[in-house]
Amino acid sequence: MDPSDDQIIEQTLGGETEAFNLLVRRWERQIYGLSLRLTGREEEARDICQETFIAAYRNLGKFRREASFSSWIYRIAINACHTRQRRQNQRAEIPIVSNEEADSNIELASDDRGRSVPEELERDQRARLVRKALQALPPDLRQVIVMKEYQDLTFAEIGEILDIPVSTVKSRLYTGLGQMRARLERLRGVL
Amino acid sequence: MNKKIERPDKKAGEIGQIGQIGEIDRAGCDRKGDLISFLYEEMSDEENREFSRHLTECALCADEVAGFRRVREDLGAWETGWVPRTEVVRPAGLPASLLDKLSSLLLLFPVWARGMALTALAAGLLLALLPMGRGDERVSPDEIDRLVREAVARERQQLENDYRARTVAFEEQSQREHDARIEAVAASCKANLNDLRRSLRAEMRHGQSIRSYFALGDGYDLPGRGAGEER
Ligand SMILES: [Zn+2]
Q1: End of a domain among A73, A98, A123?
Q2: Do A149 and B76 touch (CB under 8 A)?
Q3: A129-171: per-residue pLDDT in tens?
């Protein structure tokens, strides 16, 4: 049976440094996915992902068991995203995702899912729109949508990670989805 | 019924003030919290049945559920492709200081990659180099960034120095070879010159004797001819 996150943490703190790799393997896809959807940039997401695990590794001794490891590491990643975007906004008022960048950054999803080419193109187009619409949302709305849609977390889990009540999670989701809907409709209208 | 519903963005357009607009829009039905729970299926069966009934009566909620479902479908189209690999490694026999560690790590990369090595490639490896975090001294990502930059700059400086040193060494070497060749040529010239001088001297001695032989003719007695007689 696979060891629990807590067991791995114990092993790592006990000196089995490599045990931490298990935690990385277990969570990196989630953390990368979260960072990618929050920042809209692959490169940035990669950096944040690594930063997050470095920070977690370095602070493992301070990890409190009241929270789950996943909440804790999500929180680290979200903070890392914040810090980066703040730094970026200070540097220059550039749009988070320019058209060209958004276009070039969308990878053509591999067709190992048995989709036809028109289906792929249609999906690509939609992904591009979604990316644009998401990046245009205020960060607090984007966060809850990303966490709910892509990380598949419950309202309560999102509340714990962001340290906000469940009612706030829901109202942010509501407002965020409303804005997404409007933007997507508008973007579609332009095309 | 779509007409009645004003989408938040049509009015506010900009980020920041939209929080309350959702509420203004929903005058007449204030069940947005339930709507969200229903949408994400975080409801008991009983609540679910009840809200489904509500949807048959409330056009506002029904429209919104349909609209949000389309948004969710669109969101599903954005898949992550490549996922990074972060690895904890424990390289054997590393030197003590973090900077030394970074430098020795850099040596593992080919020259062309060193400039960018740690930013992406080796950041994962860095995990191993950082001491464990039971309240000991901390290294922030910024610090790591700085350390990496310094290490890279040092590495570049080192390469430049090496290059310069090699250039200087080459120049010195070729200067030495040049000097040696000139010396050799000079030596052979000198040798030739000496030979020439020697033979010239020999010839001159001979010529001298000839010259003196003849020259002495003008006013001097040629040896062996009448000198003795005259003396
Ligand atoms: Zn309603």
Answers
A1: A98
A2: yes
A3: 899 999 999 999 999 999 999 998 999 999 999 999 999 999 9
What are B123's two structure tokens? 């950041």
Give me the mean pLDDT over the B16-36 stretch.
65
Out of A68, A98, A128, a domain closes at A98
Check CB contact under 8 Å for A167 and B33: yes
Residues A92 and A1 in one domain: yes
Which is higher by pLDDT, B144 or A21?
Answer: A21
Alpha-carbon distance values, B118 to A39, B89, B111, B114, B127 (Å): 22, 14, 13, 8, 12
Among A83-92, A148-157, B4-13, B51-60, which stretch is predicted with the lowest mean pLDDT?
B4-13
CATH of the domain at A153: 1.10.10.10
Dist. CA A139–CA A183, nearest whole Å: 16
CA dist A10 and B111 (Å) reads 39
Full residue range of the structural domain in which residue A27 is found: 1-98
Angstrom CA distances, B140 to A52, A57, B82, B145, stand at 11, 12, 26, 8
| Residue A11 sits in the same domain as residue A51 | yes
The pLDDT assigned to B192 comes to: 75
8 Å CB contact of A185 and B7: yes
**Residue A182 Cα to ligand 1 middle (Å):** 19
